[in-house]
Amino acid sequence: MKIEDCFYFGKIGKPKGFKGEVNIIIDKNTPISPDTLNEIFILVGKKLVTYPVASFKTAPKGNAIVKFEDMTSDKDVNRIKNLSIYLPKEILPKLDKNEYYLHDLVGCVLIDKTFGKVGIINEVNNQTSQTILFVETQNDEIVIPFVSEFILAVNTSRKEVNMDLPEGIINLNE
Predict the structure, then answer these.
(1) What's the longest Cα–Cα distance across the chain?
(2) CA 146, CA 4: separation in Å to the nearest integer?
């Protein structure tokens, strides 16, 4: 499985007990919260590694408790602690034509109505009061608020986000 075929789901937390169970910290931006999982993909270095899941239970605070096959102790779990978890995009519900998931914006070209091509979106963060795009330009990385007042069009199949940004916002980070 390639990372571009997946979406970020969360990360491995602390062991839960001594029998190989682990807390999963589910990302607040994740578009789904599955009831069951047969396997997950953990980013080890730069490669996704498949980990078969023996049991998956959601926890009250929006996280989960997972028991992996062939992991029988907290020492086994500690080897993967804090590593990132990915799930295949194919398990996501299908969206209507003009809808998109925020993770689909990563890799899109941000185009401003006046300025033209600004750069490539390399991260989307909606953990703040408004969603923020981190855009890699030729010279630097800039932060752009992703608010409806600025959005003209989003076409994830063409990998383009068209916006009408306020004057000076592109140079604000300099």
Answers:
(1) 59
(2) 22
**pLDDT at 17 > cutoff 90:** no
**Confidence at 174, pLDDT banded by 50, 70, 90:** low
Q: pLDDT tens, 110-142?
A: 999 999 999 999 988 877 788 999 999 988 999
Indicate left, alpha or beta for 161 from its phi (over 0: left) and psi (-120 to 50: alpha).
beta
Q: Is 47 a member of any domain?
A: yes
* Structural domain for 152, as ranges: 102-163
Eight-class DSSP state of 100: -
Q: What is the CATH number of the domain that holds 145?
A: 2.30.30.240
What pTM was computed for the model? 0.74
Question: What is the DSSP secondary-structure string of 22-82?
Answer: EEEEE-TT-S---S--SEEEEEETTEEEEEEEEEEEE-TTS-EEEEETT--SHHHHHTTTT
